[in-house]
Amino acid sequence: MTNAEYSRQSFWRQYIFSVDHKVIGLQYGLTALSFLLLGFMLMVLMRWQLAFPGEVIPWLTFVVIFILLGLAIVFLAGKKRPYLALNSLIFFGIAALIWYFTTGEERLPGGIMLPEFYNQLGTMHGTIMVFLGVVPLAVGAFGNYILPLQIGAPDMAFPRMNMVSYWVYFIGGVLMIISFFLPGGAAQSGWTSYSPLADINTGQTMWLVAMLFVIISSLLGAINFIVTTVQLRVEGMTWFRLPFFVWTQLITAFLLLLAFPSLQIGAIMQLLDRVAGSSFFIPAGIIQGGKVLEYSGGGNPLLWQHLFWFLAHPEVYVLILPAIGIITEVVTNNTRKPLWGYPAMVYSLFFIGFMSFLVYAHHMFITGMGTAVTTWFQTTTLIISIPSIIFLAVIVFTLWGGSIRFTTPMLFALAWVPMFGIGGLTGLPLGLAPPDIHLHDTYYVIGHFHYIVAPGSIIAFFAGIYYWFPKICGKKLNDNLGKVHFWGTIIGMNLTFAPMLVQGMAGVSRRLYDGGLGYDHAQPVLFLNEWMTWGAWIIGIFQIFFILNIVLTLRKKSRSEENPWDATTLEWATTSPPIAHGNFITEPFVYHGPYEYNVSVNGQNVPYLPQHKKMDIED
Amino acid sequence: MDIPFSNTLLIMNNLEKPSSTNHNNRYIIIGVSLLILTILTVWTSYFTATVGVSIAIALAIATLKGSLVASFFMHLITEKKLILVILFFTVIFLFALIFLPFSDTMNNVGIPNDY
Amino acid sequence: MEIPFTVSERPDTGLTNPKFGIWLFLASEVMLFGSLFSSYIILRTGSLDWPVQSDELNITIGAVNTAILIASSLTMVLSWTALKEKQFKRFKLFIGLTILFAVLFLVLKIWLEYIPKIHHGHILSTNTFFAMYYLMTGLHALHILGGVVVMIFFWGPGSKMWQTNPDQFVNRIEVVGLYWHFVDLVWIFLFPTLYLL
Q1: Does residue A350 carry a pLDDT above 50?
Q2: Using CA atoms, how far apart are residues A144 and B24, in angstroms rounded to an integer?
């Protein structure tokens, strides 16, 4: 199909049910960012309750802010850009959802949060952020858009399956939101949904159905990514000429492919426990509200934890590996130096992927595992921290002696290094059983994994968005607004997550409705709740700069250069944005590794040598 | 793939691909032996051996049958190295999936699951 | 625009995209059924009153169904070789037989096993053994059903591709065959686990 034929396709085929990996990548990106915003809003509601327990939540302020944001987008988009104006629906939708929460007697009556609703918000915050926000953004959006371009492929290996996996994910997300409107509300057993609580709690059925959709979507996507990477590399793109981002996507896809089935089975079993009365996870004689429930018993609640964490531990590498890939691309590009230890990075990646299947039960140290099993899991857990440290070390060594350009994506990438370091190092005590017994289920755990996922993954995604925006839209995001966004986000995030570590070490439990108000040992650190809430507000307010930056940039008429960052990888070998179908006007041929910056050719220094330019490098 | 892997797989790759004309008979022989093994496994199950022995026998026969299906019907014996490597790791993770959870609960075998 | 290596093999991997894709899918399926077996082991060893399975289930029907699936696997592989020898009629015969065997399997499973058991009041909520039995065989039966639908498509309307693009059609039958043998392989392990041990 030629380009002209492509553009004659109907609107639906081009923009909605498109099989073009770039359109699907953008669909994933927009949906995932919307879910991140929604998940963030749920958290801000919770944080207000934690800082000011039992007080009225300023829900009207939230609604007004979101309506104003929506109107600003409509106004800025103007009549000429109806598709851009349509995005305001996301903001109006979130405003409507918050308003809906305050109606009725079981959620936020008069703006005062009920404990059951707090549990729903916590569960949905976790689920939405992990399964509907970060993973689809990391894999679905960045992977879909960038990976085929970086290997010189015309599209994904199975374009129609690619479309199906987006729409299955979309249905899963919609079902997840619908669950708020069902009688009994959304799931409220935590994002880990531990049995037997989750077997008898309200709202869980819809959560499980939605999760099955999300899982199927991930499996289809994973097959597609692996086949694309292995089969569709252009000529000359040998394994060790792959950009590191492609490697991370490949290993991530394997993790999704082989780890998700265990949660699939777990979800089916929990669903059967709920709707068919089986007792896979229910022990005999379980009592709810003083009544013995009618279950045959004989199930094992710990089996759920095994099935869940067998997925969910590799899942945390799904969250962070693509982020490391993005950081590698941005750091090499902005230090103008080759990656310091490319093979070490690749082998570490293989090792981390392999080991991630063997460490999962470190989430279960306090379930009464035997000492031998515990020893196995804490040993493997400490071993798996080694490749993560190699990643960090390689990035720091790459920075060493480089002439660093402090562009906006590079600021995010530089901030990522210490943030990911904090996230990783705070994990070590949790990987050892003795300190974990003290720290388990406290805010320390929350602080640890938020340092990994928020200033770790999400900061990296911001770096990726600023870095690849000129590729996707042909226009560069505004640098000043970007820097404001960067500083606000990084300060807000640290203000939010660092106090969690302190509270956790003081022994404040997670999932407390009142933020620890009722506990004596929590009193000295109770004031931190307010800090964290203001931190969350700072994060939120500075995202407005990001949203406005995107809208204002899309309004601009002037286009940026084809390769504004002087980058070497193949996605810059085509037009920006790449041509609609087929990506490359002429199929490129690859002559070099991915990071040939400041190499010498014929005795002369070449500042950057694109992978598809034929030149002989001297050692 | 330039990942080092055992030489035996390389040798297996170099085996001549069975031309389908002459190998319909082979498929039929495999099918018949699968049927015989099915009868065998049912037959052995009627002997009252200890639990361990009967599990071992049944699993051994099932594994033999499974490898016949995988090797010949699914042509794994002449399959490309890449697929064998991926399946090799899948089997390792499968063992992790079966034995790691079991290693946690096996201390409690025979103890009912009520807490 | 064509996606490369949809029909022909990529020289350095020696694989076509669909064949590589189905093997990855099967790897995922290994983990799917592996989770079931893992759960089965934990639930059974943790139980004090697990029924004697051979008293609850009919070994004869199980064994006959095993034989039927093995026969269907054989006809499947024969249909693929027939197609490679360009004997289209033989292909149609053998894949038709495969569909027949598969339907027979489902009929025996449902009419002679599920329905009588449900009449006896043996359902998912009876005990963990029956819950596990219905889950494992049910998920397997769904896989059979999916295979039947796909094979009927390639026996009927899908076989028109033989005229337009024979190479791709042979590849598609190979991919269906791989899936089908895998479903057979799963049953080979399910049968002794649930009926004999």
Answers
A1: yes
A2: 43
How far is B109 from chain A, CA to nearest CA, in Å?
12
- Model confidence over B81-109: pLDDT tens digits? 999 999 999 999 999 999 999 988 776 66
Subunits next to A (3 or more Cβ pairs <8 Å) are B, C
Residues of chain A neighbouring C172 (CB-CB closer than 8 A) = none
Interchain proximity C197–B30, CB inside 8 Å: no
Task: Tell whether C4 is within 8 A of chain A (Cβ).
Answer: yes
Contact C29 A154 (CB under 8 A): no
Shortest distance, CA C104 to any CA of chain B (angstroms): 17
- Number of Cβ pairs < 8 A linking chain A and chain C: 123
Q: Is A274 helix (H, G, I), strand (E, B) or coil?
A: helix
Q: Where are the domains of chain C?
A: 58-196
Identify the three-state secondary structure at position A201.
coil
More confident residue, A404 or B21: A404
Record: contact A298-C124, CB cut-off 8 A: no
DSSP A370-408: -HHHHHHHHHHHHHHHHHHHHHHHHHHHHHTT------H
Q: Assess whether B40 and B70 both reside in one domain.
A: yes
Q: Does B33 share its domain with B59?
A: yes
Round to whole Å and give the CA distance between A153 and A232. Answer: 6
Res. B21: pLDDT tops 70: no
Q: Are residues B24 and B66 in the same domain?
A: yes
Q: Does C30 touch chain B (CB under 8 A)?
A: yes
The answer to whether the CB atoms of B1 and A239 lie below 8 A apart is yes
Whether a cis peptide bond, with omega within 30° of 0, leads into A607 is no
What DSSP string runs through chain C? -PPTTSSSPPTTT---HHHHHHHHHHHHHHHHHHHHHHHHHHHHHT-S----HHHHS-HHHHHHHHHHHHHHHHHHHHHHHHHHTT-HHHHHHHHHHHHHHHHHHHHIIIIIIIHHHHHTT--TTT-HHHHHHHHHHHHHHHHHHHHHHHHHHHHTGGGGHHHH-HHHHHHHHHHHHHHHHHHHHHHHHHHIIIII-
Residue A300 and residue A284 in contact, taking contact as beta carbons nearer than 8 Å: no
Q: CB distance from A284 to chain B under 8 Å?
A: yes
- Cα C96 from Cα C101, distance rounded (Å): 9
C-chain residues near A299 (CB < 8 A): 43, 128
CB of C74 within 8 Å of any CB in chain B?
A: yes
**pLDDT value at position A391?**
96
* Of residues C176 and A7, more confidently modeled: C176
Give the nearest partner residue to C43 out of A265, A266, A300, using CB atoms. Answer: A300
**Chain C touching partners, 3 or more CB pairs below 8 A:** A, B
Domain range for residue B50?
A: 20-74
Provide mean pLDDT across the span C108-126. 94
C28 contact A CB<8A: yes
pLDDT reported for residue A237: 95
Residue B87 lies in a domain: yes
Residue A614 pLDDT more than 70? yes
What confidence tens digit (pLDDT) does each residue in A423-468 have? 999 999 999 999 999 999 999 999 999 999 999 999 999 999 999 9
Third-level CATH fold of C58-196: Four Helix Bundle (Hemerythrin (Met), subunit A) (1.20.120)
Q: How much is the average pLDDT of C73-102?
A: 95
Tell me, yes or no, whether B3 lies in a domain.
no
Domain count across chain B: 2
Give the nearest chain C residue to B28 (CA atoms).
C74
- Is B9 part of a structural domain of the chain? no
Beta bridge partners of A597: A608
Domains of chain A: 15-54+113-283+292-608 (1.20.210.10)
Partner chains of B (3+ C-beta pairs under 8 Å) = A, C
**Is the complex ipTM higher than 0.90?**
yes
The pLDDT value given to residue A286: 86
